[in-house]
Write a structure and sequence with these properties.
single chain; about 160 residues; mainly beta; three-stranded antiparallel β-sheet; about 0% helix; rod-shaped
Length: about 160
């Protein structure tokens, strides 16, 4: 007779599944280049509009992650008019022009929120705002100030 040696292999396996989930939420980040804007005194007869001094241009970077069909909005609002020790100057005497990314908008300061940027797509947007002040002989001498607040949000 013949003797046959047969090698028999038995295999076994099992699967176990793991769900993997990544949540990507809307995000915004705002970075401003400076924290102070100043205007030097000038003769209103020769300088009816004063550009802000060396710190008069604010560089701005907005990082936005938005869902499709959603627009992120950058606003600015003045806390008050320009307030001096005995008088005020309307905040509307300060305006800005924008440069850089076309999503940044020019305008005039107000005590109600003004839209200064609209971002319809996710990404990083770089630009700047240059400020001007309407000068007048009617203003009383003194130092005037207020604060402005920028807010970047995704509705």
């Amino acid at each position: 007779g013949y003797l046959f040696w047969s090698h028999v292999t038995f295999a076994a396996s099992t699967d176990s599944r793991v769900s993997l989930t990544v949540r990507i939420a809307p995000r915004v980040k705002l970075q401003l280049g400076i924290g102070t804007i100043s205007f030097a005194d000038a003769n209103p007869a020769t300088d009816p509009v004063i550009s802000a001094t060396e710190n008069g241009s604010i560089s701005v970077s907005s990082w936005v992650r938005t869902p499709p069909g959603t627009t992120a909005i950058l606003t600015v609002v003045a806390n008050d008019d320009l307030v001096g020790s005995h008088h005020t100057i309307p905040i509307s005497k300060v305006s800005w022009s924008s440069s850089g990314a076309p999503e940044y908008l020019s305008g005039t300061l107000s005590k109600s929120a003004q839209t200064v940027g609209l971002f319809a797509r996710s990404g990083r947007y770089d630009g700047s705002y240059s400020f001007r002040f309407v000068n007048s002989a009617d203003y009383m001498p003194g130092d005037y100030s207020t604060q402005i607040v920028y807010t970047l949000s995704v509705p």
